[in-house]
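User: Show me a protein chain along with its predicted structure.
Assistant: Here is one chain, sequence first, then structure tokens.
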Amino acid sequence: MSVADRLHLQSVSRVSSLAAVAAGVSAYSAYPGAVHVERWKSGWRWSPAHRGGPQPLLREFARFLDVAPGSIWMPFNTDRKRYAYVPPRGANGRQPEAHDVLILDTPVTPTEARALIEARLSARGRARGVSPVRIKR
């Protein structure tokens, strides 16, 4: 596993910098699909997301990691819009300040991912599981 892959995984399981989250979302956007993003007081976080529940989420994440689905295990939560996503480690019941789902039909650069995340989760917007935004080119 490369250093970049480890950083992408770290920004899934832990609150990270916006740059790390944008890089992870950009890398994941190579595979069209949904991405759950969160804004916390201490930073940002992302996770692959899937409306089909935990098993399709596991398959999508395994494809991204280039591993067999049976070789990984991961917890999941489901948001109000029924998107399954990987929850943060050690949240202990704490909730993000804002969260939303981005549906990426085309790859995005880290700069584009950052702009999308900031636009959807700005302090003024206070997005909390609103309708997903669909990104197409």
